[in-house]
Amino acid sequence: MRLTRRTRVTADVRPGFPAAEAPALQTTLAGVLTAAERATGRPVPVELTFDTGRGDVLAVVCRNRVVGFVPAEHAATVRAQRDDAGPRAVLVAPGVLHADGDLWRVWVGAVPDDGPSAADPGSEALGAPEPTVLGIPLRRTDD
Prior knowledge:
Order of helices and strands: EEHHEEEHEEEE
Mean pLDDT: 83
Radius of gyration: 16 Å
Number of strands: 9
Largest sheet: 7 strands, mixed
Number of helices: 3
Oligomer: single chain
Helix content: 10-25%
Number of domains: 1
């Protein structure tokens, strides 16, 4: 059996965009970064890929983990490029993981000279996950 490497096709995502769902995926984003990358708080250049999710959603994947989703206004363009690349191809784009206050965010594409722009508030439909201990949710009561 001969193993073949999948063809890599670079996506045209100019001028770039913030991936959606940063608050809901903070645990995953922290897991993607090394301890040194998290500690410095500086932007981390990464290679991102795009994969199909549930329904019409396109997932943004970094280091084999889903770290966000392509916003609706960019989904048609990225989907068309993914379809043109073919079923055995991997659509890749440069990106940056960067700190934005207490959150880590994903910028897809080349970073503008003035830095990555903030995500639209409407693009984050999922809230931040509730805190858990070993997968068991912690319920707090405010007195």
